[in-house]
Amino acid sequence: MTMTSDVATEPIGLTPAREGRLLAAGAEASLASHVRTFGALPRREPRAMLRELEASGLTGRGGAAFPAWRKLAAAAETASGRRRGRTPILIANGSEGEPLSWKDAVLLQNAPHLVVDGMLTAARAIGATNVLLMVNADAVGRVERALAERPDARGIELVEAADSFISGEASTVVNAIENDDPRPTDRTARLTESGLRGRPTVVQNVETLAHVGLIARFGATWFRSLGDASDPGTRLVTVTGDVPHGGVFELPTDATLDEALAVAGADGRSASAALIGGYHGAWVPSRSFRTALTRADLARFGAQPGAGVIHVLGDHRCGLQATARIVAYLAGQTANQCGPCMFGLPTMAVRFEGLATGSAARENAAELVRLSGLVVGRGACHHPDGTIRLIRSALHVFASDVHAHAEGRCTRRPA
Amino acid sequence: MHTEAGLSTSRHVLHIDWTRCDGRGLCAEILEGALGRDDWGYPVVLRGDPEHRTDLRLRADEVTAAEEAVALCPVAAFAAPPRRGRLTRSPRVRTLAGKYNWRTRAASAVDVPHPSEDR
User: How many CB pairs under 8 A join A and B?
Assistant: First the structure.
């Protein structure tokens, strides 16, 4: 059995080392038990470390799944290139705005030292002089205590994140730190070229960095010994919804949806679908629960592993009503900066509500298709695009429900 | 160096800063055929990949009109100058915009090289 926790503060039991990598030092691990479990952090030569990370195939665990080494290498390259003298900045991103995810909270609560190890390793690999750690308000105390335990973390600045859905978006993180303005910004250059204070900036999710802390010790071959060949290792997932024991679990990256449900004590036969990747994610119908949670296998549903969110919808619930609630929430989370998002999302929320309640369902569904095509690809951040991904997925996966609603029926009795 | 010939290549891109755009619609009038307007008046790039409609890739014969659109935009949503409290705008864009100001005496379509291209 893998590790689990219903809330971030609940201690996590010791886990078999093979499956439980990130949380192997146990609940709320002190520096002593951290070092006892993993050994001391070796100081790796920067180039060798970047090569090791490339060989490991580690991808970002914050949602975008970008190769971790490539971001680091890009920032290192900018710093050593024409604009010499602009030393890179490393930001560890633990601001988790997604309501269905608390894996970063569990990680920071229980294994802050592994995150710090990854931060120090990555900072050394790119020659970063400023190292920041952004976490939600709840985690500040625990992380402060961990940082105080070790002299090598003295240079790390702790920053409290804003509490909003889009607070974790990379340009938002930079804007919040630089201007105290937690809204996305218009970008024409990559952050690794010009980010915080115009300096090459790497924003990495805290789980990604925890894996870096392990790869620094045990190497790429060890890392690749679990998971999918093209996207190896393990990932933390948060399983919620109609399951007996929801929580955070560590799974190999090639685990199937059925396996993820099993660790949460659920049986896929009582579900109608699962939302994968978060509120910006896509639905996978229960008949396809043998799908592996890899990018390649999820692609045909328009889904991605994202930040490891798995939200299970019982077959007694209406998928359109569930989606309508999420779209309404997302419409309320617009930063009110970009017109197509500010006006388009609330309009789509109203249309989806109509579809879900069965009023003019056919017309509302057609309008949702048109509005999705109108708004997509037109914003400073991906909030509108992510919302449209969810809407399109729901119209596709719950197509028979759309049909039923248009005829004044619902295929499921609302709970 | 950006020569006049350089100005008419298809590498010229009109970049919309959605955080500034107010949907006044002058650009859509000036660049009719390349920019339309949505239900709320905001510009819609009418060509290219629908998933990436923040940048309008300009045809050579549209560059002058694009420069006019940039210069006339009442909220400067195309070539944004630095302003107080918003220092995250990249220095590279400022430099390029400044260069165009100097060469053409009008705020210009921002030339955005592909990220992998050497500058």
Answer: 99
Contacts of B91 in chain A (CB under 8 A): 194, 198
Mean pLDDT of A97-124: 95
The pTM score is: 0.82
Task: Take residue A360 and report the two structure tokens written for it.
Answer: 């003019």
Instruction: Give residues 139 to 178 of A whose Cβ lies within 8 Å of B.
Output: 171, 174-175, 178
Asked if B115's CB is within 8 angstroms of A185's CB, the reply is no
Query: Is residue A344 within 8 angstroms of chain B, CB to CB?
Result: yes
ipTM: 0.79
With a pLDDT cut of 70, the percent of chain A lying above it is 93
Tens-place pLDDT, residues A336-370: 999 999 999 999 999 999 999 999 999 999 999 99
CA distances from A181 to A88, A162, A240, B110 (A): 22, 9, 31, 25
CB-based contact (8 Å) between A188 and chain B? yes
Minimum CA–CA partner of A389 in chain B = B51
- Of all residues in chain A, the percent with pLDDT exceeding 90 is 72
CA distance A3 to A250: 7
User: What is the pLDDT at residue B30?
Assistant: 94
